[in-house]
């Protein structure tokens, strides 16, 4: 989720070119992100934490309550220290700076997946392990 269509488009292109994600959803604000994540049972959400209300922090809190197994990655240009504190507090599963670049983005998102003995990739979670690789940006 990012309020910039250009940022969302760039992320989509990077992930489609460099990962095995099959399904993507986009949202430009927190309310849309929450609704789409719930509707599509997204297993991974990338949230810009510096959004207009509800910001990424508020959106993450709502998603944690509604979808406790969903992995949430905070994303920002300037709030690295805040992001690291939010990860330490369990509000996000990871945090990235937009300045970290595409390789770090791909590595971080892929780190939530494991390869099974049959060659499939499943998200690391306690309950839902055979669902599609869904991502909301």
Describe the overall structure.
- Mean pLDDT is about 80; it is low at about 125-130.
- This protein has one domain: 3-Layer(aba) Sandwich (Rossmann fold), CATH 3.40.50.2300.
- It has a five-stranded parallel beta sheet with strand order 1-7-2-3-4, with helices on both faces.
- It has helices at about 5-20, 30-40, 55-65, 80-90, 100-110, and strands spanning about 25, 45-50, 70-75, 95, 115, 120-125, 135.
- A hairpin with a 5-residue loop joins strand 5 (about 115) and strand 6 (about 120-125).
- The chain is of the alpha/beta class and about 140 residues long.
- The radius of gyration is 14 Å and the shape is globular.
- It starts with a helix and ends with a strand.
Estimate the helix proportion, in percent.
25-40%
* Level-1 CATH class name: Alpha Beta
Radius of gyration: 14 Å
How do the SSEs run, as a string of H and E?
A: HEHEHEHEHEEE
- In the sheet with the most strands, the strands line up as 1-7-2-3-4
Q: Please indicate the count of domains.
A: 1
Tally the beta strands. 7
* Shape, principal axes of CA atoms: globular
Provide the CATH superfamily: Response regulator
Q: Classify the beta-strand content into a percent band.
A: 15-25%
Instruction: Show unreliable segments.
Output: 125-132
Helix segment count?
A: 5
CATH topology name, in short, is Rossmann fold
Main beta sheet, described? 5 strands, parallel
What would CATH call the architecture? 3-Layer(aba) Sandwich
Distance between the termini: 4 Å
Mean pLDDT: 81
């Amino acid at each position: 989720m990012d309020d910039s269509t250009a940022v969302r488009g760039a992320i989509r292109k990077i992930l489609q070119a460099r990962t095995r994600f099959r399904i993507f959803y986009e949202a430009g604000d927190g309310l849309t992100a929450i609704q789409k994540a719930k509707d599509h049972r997204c297993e991974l959400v990338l949230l810009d934490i510096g959004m207009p209300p509800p910001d990424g922090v508020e959106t993450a809190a709502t998603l944690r309550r509604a979808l406790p197994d969903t992995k949430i990655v905070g994303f920002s240009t300037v709030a690295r220290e805040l992001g690291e504190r939010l990860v330490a507090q369990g509000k996000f599963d990871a945090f990235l700076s937009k300045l970290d670049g595409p390789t770090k983005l791909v590595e971080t998102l892929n780190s939530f997946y494991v390869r099974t003995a049959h060659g499939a990739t499943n998200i690391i979670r306690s309950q839902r392990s055979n669902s599609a690789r869904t991502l909301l940006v």
